[in-house]
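Human: Here is a favour to ask of a fellow structure person. Comparing notes only helps if you start from a blank page. Give me a protein, with the fold worked out from its sequence. Please set it down just below, with no commentary around it:

Assistant:
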Amino acid sequence: MKELSSDFLRKYIGGRGLAAKLLWDLNEPGIDPFSPQNHVILAVGPLTGFPLPSSGKMIIASKSPLTLGYGDGNIGTRAAVEMRKCGFDAVVIKGTSEKPVTLKITSKGVEFLLADDLWGLGTHETERRLQKQFGKNLAALFIGPAGENKVLYATVISEHGRSGGRPGMGAVLGSKRVKAIIFEGESLPEPADKQALNKLGAEAYKKLKEAPNYDFWTRQGTMMTIVWSQKNSVLPTYNFREGVFDGFESISGDAMEKIKVSTEACPFCNMPCRNYVKYTVNGEERIAEPDYENVAMLGSNLGITGIDRVSHLNDIVDDMGIDTISTGSVIGFAMEASENSLLSKDDRIEWGDYKAAADLIRKIAYREGVGNLLADGTMRAARKLGGGSERYAMHVKGLEISAYDCHAAPGMALAYGTCSIGAHHKDAWFISLELKMGRDNYSPEKAEKLVWMQNIRGALFESFVMCRLPWVELGLDLDYYLNFIRASTGVDFTWDELHEFAHRVYSLIRAFWVREHVAMGMSWSKSMDYPPERWFKDPLTKGPLAGAKLNKEGYDALLMKYYEVRGWDNRGIPKKETLIKYGLSDIATQLERFINLS
């Protein structure tokens, strides 16, 4: 066990900030993600586990096997709270076990438990067996067959469908033969001002329940976004060819409510969005947890209708321990490749074929047949297939794009292009702001506003570690978080200091990406920050925005402005003066071993 200094924690705070710095320090440059010496970092933040809105989250980070850059994901789970109760800000895992193991972590250290009986099981059965052994209030993370078979976008699962680590964090644990991680803590650390913290938390919980759309949110959660995305022509359809789907009503939040049986929340959350539905397949009743990203990518993106069928696909993906977004994207890619006769006759899959999609998910998890090709993601699959398929491999830096079409959303496309882990909406759900600023607006203000949004969502919330939805969906004032940090840590940050911290995190993570790619013999240029060609060359053909496509010159201008605001050069690499400005002079010195800095 290693003590982290107060100065170090103030500089990197926790969660993503802490994980990124630990990965930079601990990983040898250019290491194979499946090497025993690649590290997995589990990190909580200074607000984790306190009675504050949606504070039950943790970060899972490592070098990504999918992108070969920085990878992480957050996950709402009791494991986060229990890890904090163990007294740890971060848990670092390296090495490889000879046999499958479960790690049991307490305040005293770690115990290695043989997991031969769990290896090969889906996540649902794994959880049932762990609960039988350790109790119903199990605080655990685990992987499924996809992680065991090193599917490059395998995730880490908790609590029947909570999933984190899109860029292959489950595969890295699988390479280490770690099936599960259990936390059993004792007590939370004492906050600097417990009375103030409790008062602030109570106020914030009350404000959330009084928000005008609270009731609707608790009924539908993120599933309300299906109708919103259809209305605004951003619902991914037929592998991001279109932004509208004829069958959208059958997979909407309204359709979900008809088969919904319960709602649950992550720890310390009073705006629950974990909607569980009951459906019947092959005469058997099943339970699934659909949300917007899952349903859009496994529904409209594949041309599949019916909330029951899409929920079933969602449940299979969760049970296998694969990322729902990437799975929907690779199957959409396979459907389009089939349409273009790039797959063999036996491997082809047609749009809307629900049964074939269900079968293909299992093939991906077990790397069987064409599933072995698709298990490596759209970027690698397109490179192997050729035939122009690179044009419709919908990814950025190897990570498949989450569920917002950007033919007419340059700011959201830039958010995908510059996200810390590859194409993901978590760092900046810019599309809502884009509607207000104008869909065809390529002004510098968009890039400036995107940096601000990434700083809040991608650095602060991911490092505190807290869910962003109380702010995003129910309008909880951001100043509450400033006050939460003060009461929790005793540190009186200003917003200027927190934005400086956010710039530090983004420049550190970008430095990690550049170091890893160059150390592995690859080049780095601004092309790494571009979305797929489809959005520039293949216009929408349906809906109110038919004919729309991105303007490449306009996007390039946005990207250059983004670099300017970040203090990066025209390659997208942090300048030496920027690294020094944000307290990363040691990073600059090390990075210069691999590439010349401006």
